[in-house]
Write a structure and sequence with these properties.
By secondary structure, the protein is α/β, with parallel strands linked by helices. It folds into two domains: 168 residues, Rossmann fold (3-Layer(aba) Sandwich); 293 residues, L-fucose Isomerase, Chain A, domain 2 (3-Layer(aba) Sandwich), CATH 3.40.275.10. It has 15 helices and 18 strands. The strands form three sheets. It has a six-stranded antiparallel β-barrel with strand order 10-11-16-15-14-17, surrounded by four helices. Strands 2-1-3-4-5 form a five-stranded parallel β-sheet, sandwiched between helices. Strand 14 and strand 15 form a beta hairpin. The longest helix is centred in the middle third of the chain and has 21 residues.
Length: 468
């Protein structure tokens, strides 16, 4: 599979030299080959030079894009010269595409300002963007106003844009699963399905008893159970977990996965505190960790918007995400805090992880029914945080994003845990509290906050706080 499939519009004005268009088109095709991007672009003979300038060109290009609309993830507008502002806007309008758009314009060279080589794309880009605004078409810009395609600067722009496309398109079609009811004590994870649906996010629900029923019907020697049992044993050290608990975990995993696959779900949130332990006999943390590691984000406490936050981070980075509690201060260092959860973080966060009872739950419920949590420490490295929340009173979806660093500072505690440093952490905590965000936050070992902020605010039309 290519990294991305992008529709490409080459803008042209006829009184500029033809060679600029031919050269620009070749540059874009070369770059797409280097970056493993599949371009959907007019052939050189479909219109003059394969560019878009007239109404007729716009119709032909739009027809091409419509024929491939199920595959198009974004649109790249390239301006080797001034370009035709109406041609670009009308192509996008006629195509019916509702995907991110990136506008790139070539720079002029000071020693090539003659009629034969002058581009004026610096000016043309402003006109194209003006028209896109008039047509109510959201778009993205390169970091530099003008930039050549075959440069490191534009490659970075394009990588960023592809990330934005992945987040926008993935969220708009996301299918989430809610397994069980929200724990009664956790009002904080309430959310609005209707607000999510307005953004294209669908939620399917199932009662926890139905999952238990499916799991209990599976025989110990069922092929699916045996396969899951082997997967759990290979995933992390489970040497101290009783065989009976391992079998229960394997059956639960098989039942959950069967339901998710039947509904094509991308992520799920599971009721775990404390019905799962009391009525089934294990923790689901290790199963959730395995799912997240396999890029099927799994959140606890039926935190559906937490699962969506994990999924958005995963789309931006193509790496597993985890859900954590903003849990403890780190001594008197006001830019550091401790992240914690019972133990459902993906293995990439816990290279030393081992499967064991959930320490906190075991205090009140006993070890015998709390096997299945993963304990470990996250090593130093980059991290991006994100939280999506439905603000029901305001009838809107809100989010915040920020970046920080996992640190190797001393930490003597249990569960899935990490120490993180975020410049201006106290300001972030003020914002979270004053704006009613949840105590859970999704995290990803990447630096992708700028991608998420642009995708959320620019294309999904959510209110976003970017803590920089």
């Amino acid at each position: 599979m290519p990294k991305a499939t992008l529709a490409v519009i080459v803008g042209n004005r006829d009184f500029f030299p033809d060679r600029l268009i031919s050269e620009g088109r070749q540059d874009i095709l070369k770059l797409c080959g280097e970056m493993d991007i599949e371009p959907i672009i007019l052939g050189e003979n479909d219109t003059k030079l394969g560019a878009v300038e007239t109404w007729e060109h716009a119709k032909r290009c739009a027809d091409l894009f419509r024929s491939q609309r199920d595959r198009v993830e974004g649109v790249l507008v390239t301006l080797p010269n001034f370009g035709d502002e109406k041609g670009v806007a009308e192509t996008l309008k006629l195509s019916g595409l509702d995907v991110p758009v990136l506008v790139q314009a070539y720079p002029d060279d000071l020693d090539a300002m003659s009629v034969e080589r002058r581009r004026d794309a610096f000016c043309g880009k402003i006109s194209v963007c003006n028209n896109l605004r008039q047509y109510a078409i959201p778009f993205s810009l390169t970091d530099l106003h003008t930039v050549r395609p075959l440069t490191d600067e534009f490659r970075a722009d394009l990588e960023h844009f592809i990330g934005v496309c992945k987040v926008v398109n993935g969220v708009r079609t996301a299918r989430l699963g809610a397994i069980g009811a929200r724990p009664n004590a956790f009002n904080t994870v309430r959310y609005s399905e209707k607000l999510l649906q307005e953004s294209g996010v669908s939620v399917s629900t199932i009662d926890l008893s139905e999952i238990f029923g499916k799991a209990h019907k599976l025989a110990d020697d069922d092929a699916k159970v045996k396969a899951k049992l082997a997967e759990i044993r290979a995933y992390a050290d489970a040497g101290k977990v009783p065989q009976a608990s391992m079998v229960l975990m394997a059956k639960l995993a098989a039942a959950i996965l069967e339901w998710m696959e039947a509904l094509d779900l991308d992520a799920a949130a599971i009721q775990c505190w404390t019905s799962l332990q009391q009525n089934y006999g294990v923790n689901a943390c290790a199963l959730m960790s395995i799912m997240s590691e396999k890029l099927m984000p799994s959140a606890c406490e039926v935190d559906v918007t937490g699962a969506l936050s994990m999924y958005a981070l995963q789309l931006a980075s193509n790496q597993p995400s985890a859900l954590a509690d903003w849990n403890n201060n780190y001594g008197d260092d006001y830019d550091k805090c401790i992240l914690f959860h019972c133990g459902n973080w993906a293995k990439c966060f816990l290279p030393d992880g081992r499967i064991q009872p959930a320490d906190i739950l075991a205090v009140t419920l006993g070890e015998q029914c709390t096997h299945g949590a993963i304990a470990g420490r996250t090593p130093a490295g980059p991290v991006t945080f994100a939280r999506i929340s439905t603000d029901d009173a305001m009838g809107m979806i809100r989010a915040y994003v920020c970046e920080g660093e996992f640190t190797d500072d001393p930490l003597d505690t249990f569960g899935s845990r990490a120490v993180v440093e975020i410049p201006g952490l106290q300001e972030l905590m003020q914002y979270i509290c004053m704006n009613g965000f949840e105590h859970h936050v999704a995290m990803n070992a990447s630096q992708t906050a700028d991608i998420l902020a642009e995708a959320f605010s620019h294309y999904l039309d959510w209110e976003v706080y970017y803590h920089e």
